[in-house]
Design goal:
Elements: H1 20-24, H2 42-56, E1 74-77, H3 86-89, E2 94-99, E3 102-106
């Protein structure tokens, strides 16, 4: 059986920007590598926070990906988390949040 990692938090994205950053941090507070053999890529972390969490809650048929007919719960970040170093992910700014297809927070980027 294949493992399907899942991550979840009760923090709102506006209160704590980019939760997947906590998954990809690979250093302790002293700067030493933290379990480097268990590190995940940014793409793996994003999948765990999105589809993995939906799968774990048996809701992957309605959420966990952006596709027609799926719930539109997403966050718009200041930069692409796959294009910055993992150490910068937690500092990305949340520009907008959308839940159930409705804007819940907008820093002026949704138009």
């Amino acid at each position: 059986m294949r493992s399907r990692p899942a991550r979840r938090t009760s923090w709102t994205c506006a209160a704590r920007p980019c939760c997947p950053g906590s998954t990809t941090r690979r250093r302790t507070s002293s700067g030493a590598p933290f379990n480097p053999d268990e590190a995940v890529t940014v793409e793996q972390a994003l999948r765990a926070w999105t589809w993995g969490s939906a799968y774990a809650s048996r809701q992957d048929h309605v959420k966990g990906s952006i596709a027609p007919g799926m719930l539109a719960d997403l966050v718009v970040l200041s930069e692409d988390p796959t294009a910055v170093s993992p150490g910068r992910i937690a500092g990305l700014e949340v520009l907008a949040t959308i839940t159930g297809g409705q804007p819940r927070y907008d820093a002026g980027v949704l138009g």
